[in-house]
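WARN retry 2 of 3 for item q-0093 after timeout on previous attempt; input resubmitted unchanged.
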Amino acid sequence: MSKKRVNLAIIGVGLIGGSLGLCLKEKMGEDIYITGLCRTKASMDNAVKLGAVDYADADIETVVKDADIVFLSPPVLQIVPMVEKILPYLKKGAILTDAGSTKQYIWQHLQKILPEDVYYIAGHPMTGREKSGVTAAQKDLFVGKAYVIVEDTGAPKEAHEKLMAVLRHTGANFTTMDIAKHDRCASVISHVPHVTAAALVTLLNRTGGDLDSCIKLIGGGFKDTTRIASSNADMWADICMTNGEAIVTNLKQLQNILGEVITACENHDRQAVHDYFVASKQRRDSLLQNAAKKFDTN
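OK item q-0093 returned
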C-alpha cells in the first residue's frame, strides 16, 4: 500500500511559514502537498517560485479544504480571527498548529470556538531572522533550534503523533511545556530582549547633538546587540498585547537590575560592578556549554 500523502496548509507564507514549507518539500517530496494562503499576487508567485508551497491562493476555502494539518503563522492577534474564518471549511480530524510567540491568549479564545473534531496543538518554534517575508525564508531555519509543543490543549495522542511525524523533519529540538510556563519563559528569553534591543536603538536616537558622532562609532557590538530590533513591528506589537503581564513583570525586574548598576556606578563601587559582569559572564558561558553538550548527545 502506498504511503498516504499529507496535505498541509500554511496560513501566512512569510519567514516562518515559508521556511517550514521549504524544509518539508525538500525532506518529504511528493509525500506532502502544501497549499499557502497569501494576500498579494506577488507573495503567491514568490511562494510557488521559491518552492515553499505547491499552490498559493488568496481564497481561504481553496487553501484549507483538504488540509490534514493547518500551520498558522500570521501575527498573534490575527490567529484567532483567521481560525474563525477557516473553521467552516476544515474537514473532520484537521489539526491546527501555530507559530505564535504567546500561547495563553490564543488557547483561551480557541477553546471556545473549536468543534470536537478539529484539534489544536499549540507550537512555538524559537527561531527567526530580522528579515521578513517568504524571500527571507530558509530551509534550515529550524535546525537545532528549540521548538515548544504544548500538550495541554486536549488533542488526542493520534493527532500529536501525526503532527510530529511531519514537524520532526525540521531538525528542531522539540520540548514540551504547559501554556502558562511557556509564556513566562518566552517573555524572558525572547520578548524582553526584543523590547530591550529596541530601547537601545531608541537611546541612540535620543543622544541629541551627539547622534552623528555616535553613529560613526557603531561597530559589531551595537549591531549584534540590536539586530533583533529590525524585526517585524506588527508581530512584536501583538506579542506585547497578548503576553503583557509576563513582559511587564520581567521588564520591571530588568529595571531593578539596571537600577542596581546605576547605584554602583554612582557610588564608584567597582567591586559591585565587577561582580555584576563576572556573574553574567559565568552564567552565559555555562548556558552555552550546557547547550552544546545537549546537542552533542542528540
